[in-house]
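#lab-general

N.A. 3:47 PM
ok so I finally got the sequence cleaned up, no stray characters, all 48 residues accounted for. can someone with queue access submit it? mine expired

B.Y. 3:52 PM
send it over

N.A. 3:53 PM
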Amino acid sequence: MYCIEEDHEGIITKEMFDIVQEEKAERSNLNADGSRKSIKHTSPKLCY
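B.Y. 4:20 PM
back already:
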């Protein structure tokens, strides 16, 4: 298998791709070490 770079124009620019990847990382529910972030109001609560 081989890869040919810049063979044709992309659907989005490289810059837009990088921006979206950064945004996805910021919105991710994982910390850098792979552990889950603690998010308020997502764990089950008991109300009496």
